Amino acid sequence: MQNIRRSFWGMMMLMTLLWLIAEPPLFQPATFGAVRDMTVQYSGIIAMAVMSVAMILALRPRWPERWLGGLDKMYRLHKWLGITALVVSVLHWLWSQGPKWATSLGWLARPARGGRPPLENPVEQFFMGLRGSAEGLGEWAFYAAMLLIVLALIKQLPYRLFYQTHRLLALAYLVLVFHAVVLTKFSYWTSPVGVVMALLMIAGISAAVIVLLRQVAADRQVEGTIASLHYYPGVRALETDIEVPRGWPGHKPGQFAFATSSASEGAHPYTIASAWNGQDRHIRFVTKELGDHTRRLREKLHVGQKVKIEGPYGCFDFANGQPRQIWIGGGIGVTPFIAGMQHIAEERRTHPDSDRIPAIDLFHSTADYNETAISKLKADAEAANIRLHVLVDARDGLLTGDRIRATVPEWRDASIWFCGPSGFGEALRKDFAAHGLPVAERFHQELFAMR
Is 451 inside a domain boundary? Predict the structure, then answer.
């Protein structure tokens, strides 16, 4: 999370600094009209910068994943950028339109306009001729983008509608690029802020075209075949085993992939609940009935069906060098640990004398219970020589930091890996931080919320 904040605020500070360099009159006495013009320019630059970076992140690029802590963290940054674009764009619109309203109501005196000096630069003359179109199209694109961003933030919106509407932001972005190029102060384009803006918008345009053509991460996709399906009624979860061809590069335990079973639904992210075996070439997903899409999977999927798999992604891979680890899986959040246990079991079989495997306690806290699913979990834990602690809420009460520390006296030397409800994870993080654990380095939480 720290690198997400650093990236976000670093970008905001950089764009602000570059704008200040390009706008020296800011520090001189100015009229209201001059302040308005500068504020409109600044808010426009910030809005386009964050929208451009959000557009780039929509491609799910590999290169920033390790720095940001995984694709799940990149999507959190993508969400922050979207919210920032929403807020700053509204301020930009208000500063642009508000003085006009105030003047029409008689609250502000109409500014005296003198003759403009003739424009000598042919490019600036060309842009001047496009101002009317840029203002009109930009205003409608602003309304569309704001509506689409608000819809994306509404969790109750069915995923298939989110998928179908969110792609339209790429189209609104392209119109807003035209708006920004024409209406940005012409002198900015020869300054550092203009150069950075141009690079960001060129990258953003490329990303928008890829999104509109539905080619996001096309080179990381393979077509698999559903080999088996098993439903666990007690926990309302479906286990899907998929055979993947030679194009799948393999995955580390704890990583996830996007699966597409219906073009209208789009790609859904699922944690991979199996270790990778290059000879067997199967991957397994366990999906709980939590939303409109996952509730219908049992009806829609069948053995032999083709499924598009994209990935793998994520840095929740249990690799940090601590001799002691504590794994905590809340509900369906236990899935990355299933893959982790299977991987360790294989490591113990092939390298029985290895001292690289840390001592691990796995806590599985769940409100639902299924004997078959828990038996499989126990078998995986036994094969990996991992201490498993299953806590059913109604029977055992809630899992707390105190209970974990009492069960694992060596917790101060451990790293903690959490996957489950975000509120539960944040509560545990704060609890362990209050007891002196360096959570910034040793509390790892997967933020598995992609919208």
Answer: no
Q: What is the DSSP string of 77-123?
A: HHHHHHHHHHHHHHHHHHHHHHHHHHHHTTSSPPPP--PPPPP--HH
Q: Express each pLDDT in 170-193 by its tens digit.
A: 999 999 999 999 999 999 999 999
Is residue 37 within 8 A of residue 183, CB to CB? The reply is no
Owning domain of residue 23: 2-111+120-212
Give 225-274 as a DSSP string: EEEEEEEETTTTEEEEEEE--TT-----TT-EEEEES-TTT--EEEEB-S
| pLDDT value of position 348 | 84
Instruction: List the Cα angle 104/109/114 in 5-degree steps.
Output: 105
Last residue of one domain, picked from the residues 154, 179, 212? 212
pLDDT tops 80 at residue 385: yes
Better-predicted residue by pLDDT, 254 or 451: 254
Q: How many other C-beta atoms are found inside a 10 Å radius of the C-beta of residue 208? A: 25
Instruction: Write the pLDDT tens digit of every residue in 303-329.
Output: 999 999 999 998 888 887 788 999 999
Instruction: Return the CATH number at 149.
Output: 1.20.120.1770
Strand order in the sheet with 414-419: 387-392, 359-366, 324-330, 414-419, 443-445
**How far, in Å, CA of 404 to CA of 326, rounded?**
9
Distances (CA, A) of 94 to 102, 134, 151: 11, 17, 21
Q: Distance (Å, rounded) from C-alpha 352 to C-alpha 350?
A: 6
> In sequence order, what are the beta bridge partners of 327?
362, 417
pLDDT bracket for residue 354 (50, 70, 90): low
Contact 236, 311 (CB under 8 A): no
For residue 324, give the 3-state DSSP assignment: strand
Q: CA–CA separation, 168 vs 359, rounded Å?
A: 48
Contact 310, 220 (CB under 8 A): yes
Looking at residue 353, its pLDDT comes to: 67
Domain match, 276 and 334 both: no
What total of structural domains would you count in the chain?
3
Q: What residue type is assigned to position 26 of the chain?
A: L
| CA separation for the pair 144, 391 (Å, rounded) | 47
Query: Which of 384, 321, 326 shows the shortest CA–CA distance to 352?
Result: 384
